[in-house]
Amino acid sequence: MIRVLVAEDQSAVRAGLVLILGSAPDIEVAGEAADGEQAVALARELRPDLVLMDVQMPRLDGVSATRAVVGEGLADVLVLTTFDLDEYVFGALRAGAAGFLLKNTDAKDLIAAVRTVASGAGIVAPAVTRRLIAEFAAKPVREPAADPSVLRDLTRREREVLSCLGEGLSNAAVAERLDMAEATVKTHVSRLLGKLGLRSRVQAAVLAQELGV
């Protein structure tokens, strides 16, 4: 069973999320939090596999809560957002979130995303990744740019894969562009994430954009 903690301050939305997740035979809602502080406290107490985290909550925002949950190794975090909160999403990804979903995601995709992140893959839908990247590309960078030296340990092929991630391409699309097997792409993604100290391909996509890979 995948044990999920749902952190969402709007009770009606939270109830809907709980209902959807509870309908999946392999997912158990371990707890519910109405604010960021409660989310962190319950994550410490319940040790769920995953926290479904809203970014805009009272007392402690979702970015800070994500940083605490991930920093303490309590659970993976899947962020819930709307695109008018992109800056919060960016912060959440830097804090170690494994991915993010839009609040209007349908039930099937929500369940699939929870399963994906819980499996350790941290894959976010390419279309959503591309939109996030496009939004940030149009805005001034408020945080210091990443150090290009972080790329020195990557092989040429890993750099090429990283560049494709920066465009929001799926593994299948990367395989087609670089003329390699999809399983090989997965191996390269896993290795480059490890070398760069990243938790998800979304973080890799943001890094690729920052460095102009």
Automatic annotation (TrEMBL):
The modification 4-aspartylphosphate is found at D54. Keywords: DNA-binding, Phosphoprotein, Transcription, Transcription regulation. InterPro entries: CheY-like_superfamily (IPR011006), NreC/VraR/RcsB-like_REC (IPR058245), Sig_transdc_resp-reg_C-effctor (IPR016032), Sig_transdc_resp-reg_receiver (IPR001789), Tscrpt_reg_LuxR_C (IPR000792), WalR-like (IPR039420). PROSITE patterns: HTH_LUXR_1 (PS00622), HTH_LUXR_2 (PS50043), RESPONSE_REGULATORY (PS50110). CDD domains: LuxR_C_like (cd06170), REC_NarL-like (cd17535). Residues 147-212 form the HTH luxR-type domain. Residues 3-118 form the Response regulatory domain. This is Response regulator transcription factor.
